[in-house]
Specification:
The structure is a single chain. The protein has about 140 residues and is mostly helical. Helices cover about 80% and strands about 0% of the residues. Helix 2 crosses helix 3 and helix 2 packs across helix 4. The protein is elongated.
Length: about 140
């Protein structure tokens, strides 16, 4: 009985098991560090994609939808039934911008997707060039 307890104490305290424990802890630490770096890189890609999408939506909203709403507001055939008074005349352009932003965000405009792809490609080209190189292609 006594020999069994001594053998078990020796096997637990052996240098090989200590090295394995240290290796296991280091491996877990590097795994978590790798997972953090991977999540950080994924977040940067998602952030760029979100940034490109918002820029494309803002461009389509400002360049295409707001002028249409402005033209509709100045329509000679409008009726007084839906007139909002002096406040609508004063803040109509801001209201048009809000309507345009919400319309573009809510709808699936193919133009927004196309602009987003072009912006992402341009961002990728800009980040892939080294500081010593000059991007002459725009």
């Amino acid at each position: 009985m006594m020999a069994t307890s001594v053998d078990s104490k020796l096997s637990v305290a052996s240098p090989a098991s200590g090295a394995a424990a240290v290796w296991s802890a280091a491996s877990r630490a590097s795994d978590t560090r790798f997972e953090r770096e991977l999540a950080s890189a994924q977040g940067k890609v998602d952030g760029r994609k979100e940034q490109a999408r918002k820029a494309a939506e803002q461009l389509v909203s400002t360049a295409l939808v707001v002028p249409l709403l402005r033209q509709m507001r100045q329509d000679p055939f409008r009726t007084e039934l839906f007139h909002g008074g002096q406040a609508e005349e004063t803040f109509g352009s801001q209201l048009d911008q809000i309507f345009a932003d919400r319309t573009v965000q809510g709808a699936n405009f193919p133009l927004v997707s196309a602009i987003e792809k072009q912006l992402l490609a341009r961002m990728e080209r800009m980040t892939s060039t080294t500081p010593n190189q000059v991007n002459v292609h725009g």
